[in-house]
Design a protein that fits this description.
binds 3-hydroxypyruvic acid; eight-stranded parallel β-barrel
Length: about 250
């Protein structure tokens, strides 16, 4: 039985004040009837603030990216060991905005993934196809390739205790969402891919859906057998919306 995970991806949003208020709102609304574990992925600069605010809370702290390097002359970068010092439990890697806007390659994503594993931080490996790729009918090949990049570089054991987030690029920040059936089809194909390497990893890996998940569509998506949670963009910035998604889990 896989635990549902609802993770907020705040992206480049928030102020000290708004984040404190958001976390207070989420903490006040979470209750035992919710069937999900909860995480928030903060911009780097707010990681210490969120760490302090979440002390004694069940909400886990995550970051949105990590350096592919351990230390050295890499201006502007933040390493996995630095994130570990601030109790980061999760970190996104390969979000489509990093892949497209910052030209991150599969190989770089795989290196970042390993950096996190080495520090005991759970990587959330984001994968997904563009609209063009979906129209060409190559969705599953694209997603498979993105996952194989990690397996080929670091072995299937690297995926133990990792999370995968399927985020169709055409559903990110567009208000468009994959239908539950479309998402389930890709999630099931990911599970089959993992199964071809290791049955236990296939059964235990949480595969989240991301891409405009909101209170209106969360229940139907989360009811799908291979959708184990959500990576939430815009709706994670409003406590009520985020809580409604946690409630739907
Ligand atoms: C979105 O929902 O837009 C996301 O990109 C979540 O990561």
């Amino acid at each position: 039985m896989r635990q549902t995970l609802i993770a907020g991806n705040w992206k480049l949003n928030g102020t000290k004040q708004s984040i404190i208020e958001l976390l207070a709102g989420i903490s006040a609304g979470l209750n035992n009837s919710m069937n999900a574990s909860v995480a928030v992925c903060a911009p780097y600069i707010y990681v210490p603030l969120v760490e302090t605010a979440l002390k004694d809370s069940d909400i886990s702290l995550g970051a949105q990216d990590v350096s592919a390097h351990t230390s050295g002359a890499y201006t502007g970068e933040v390493s996995a060991s630095m994130l570990a010092e601030f109790s980061c439990e999760y970190c996104l890697v390969g979000h489509s905005e990093r892949r497209s806007l910052h030209i991150e390659t599969d190989a770089e994503v795989a290196t970042k993934f390993k950096m996190l594993k080495d520090q005991g931080i759970t990587p959330v490996l984001c994968v997904g196809e563009s609209l063009e790729e979906r129209d060409q009918g190559v969705t599953e090949d694209v997603v498979k390739q993105q996952i194989l990049a990690v397996i080929d570089a670091h072995g299937i054991s690297a995926l133990e205790n990792a999370v995968i987030a399927y985020e169709p690029v055409w559903a990110i920040g567009t208000g468009r969402t994959a239908t539950p059936d479309q998402a389930q089809e890709v999630h099931a194909s990911i599970r089959v891919l993992l199964e071809s390497f290791d049955k236990t990893i296939a059964e235990t890996t949480q595969i989240l859906y991301g891409g405009s998940m909101n209170p209106a569509n969360a229940s139907a998506l989360l009811a799908m057998p291979d959708i184990d949670g959500g990576l939430i963009g815009g709706a994670s910035l409003k406590a009520d919306d985020f809580l409604a998604i946690c409630q739907a889990a």
